Amino acid sequence: MRRTVHVVGAGLAGLAAAVRLAARGIAVVVHEAAGAAGGRCRSYHDPLLDMMIDNGNHLLLSGNRAALSYLEVIGSTSGLAGPPAADFAFMDLASGERWRLRINSGRLPWWIFDHNRRVPGTTVADYLSFARLLYAPREKTVCAAVECAGPLYERLARPLWVAALNTDPKEASAALAGAILRETLGAGGKACRPLIARDGLSPVFIDPALRFLGQHCARSLSPTIRSRSLILATIGWRAATMM
Ligand SMILES: Cc1cc2nc3c(=O)[nH]c(=O)nc-3n(C[C@H](O)[C@H](O)[C@H](O)COP(=O)(O)OP(=O)(O)OC[C@H]3O[C@@H](n4cnc5c(N)ncnc54)[C@H](O)[C@@H]3O)c2cc1C
Fold it and tell me: Considering the entire predicted model, what is its pTM?
């Protein structure tokens, strides 16, 4: 008997799971409660502007292997755009001070030895202390594993952890921070290039996934979720509202 996997939610996580399953020839049904797929990462029509806009800026670092492999499978990698190097302009809104963080592309982090490339007011030892996050146990928070004070924390680490973990570093998992470091700063500037969806979030992250699923799961639906949910049909991705 052929199995069908039901995925609840057509956000990036649900779509990524569905795409993986469909690529293996497994029948998938994706259930979505909202009127459109994409969840927190999508484009929508704004009636006031009368144009498609994204729900917010989304920045992907080039070392994010899971996201990039998802885009590769759905054939959308070319929709990403970004500068050739990891070169970030910073401005401290309180003092007006500006600086640039320029991470050299290879794994050997010689940028931390160059005061023109690193955060002003920081030392090489500050950056080396990041290594403690790479081996931090699961139960530790970021601030229990590394010092959460000083110029490196205020000017780089804190904004990075808040953006990437969506949690205050006093509560955020050190192990997760370590995983991010391993894929980005620890892998060199090649893995830290900022990438954005050039033509919008849905055209790059969502619509190609729906097309991929439509092409790979030729099986009609037998909806099982009787909540107010939208079923994205595997055949042609026709949408039907279920009560
Ligand atoms: C403004 C903004 C900026 C962001 N910037 C970045 C960024 O720069 N870089 C980055 O990596 N991330 C960023 N994020 C975070 C990123 O968008 C999310 O982490 C990601 O989209 C979450 O995907 P998800 O599938 O886990 O959850 P969601 O996107 O929340 O998807 C969950 C889906 O499940 C549906 N659902 C829930 N319950 C049910 C149910 N019972 N039945 C059917 N459907 C259900 C919901 O309607 C939704 O569509 C940003 C988010 C926002 C809002």
Answer: 0.87
